[in-house]
């Protein structure tokens, strides 16, 4: 199938793709290589996984190396730390805005949205 042609086959779910890959592994007696998949199947599976190794991992046919697992763990920890900082920053901003409104109320004047930022 050429790059500019569209597949006439209906899309499949990740679960269906996993079953297809597992069945191929049973037939071959080992995890299949991406190149061993028929083109009509490969073009339907490809959009479901970022990389072929991820497809094999999700089927349970490949276990990522310790190095890869550590890299993913660190990436997830970093993502969580960034999210915690974002939440903390938003909470501080909300408190500052509420404090400005409260102080403006005591002074007997209204606060415009522009004053809060």
Count the E strands. 0
Q: What's the helix count?
A: 5
Content-based structural category: mainly alpha
Radius of gyration: 26 Å
- Spatial separation of the terminal alpha carbons: 55 Å
Portion in helices? 55-70%
Spatial shape: elongated
Sheet-strand content, in percent, reads under 5%
Main beta sheet, described?
A: none
Query: What is the number of independent domains?
Result: 2
What value does the average pLDDT take? 83
Order of helices and strands: HHHHH
Oligomer: single chain
Summarize the structure.
The protein is an all-alpha fold and 117 residues long. Helix content is 65%, strand content 0%. It folds into two domains: 14-59; 66-116.
Description of the molecule:
By secondary structure, the chain is mainly α. The chain folds into two domains: 14-59; 66-116. The chain is 65% helix and 0% strand. The chain has five helices and no strands. The longest helix is centred in the last third of the chain and has 42 residues, at 66-107. It is elongated, with a radius of gyration of 26 Å. The chain starts with 13 loop residues before the first helix and ends with a helix. Residues 1-5 have low confidence and may be disordered.
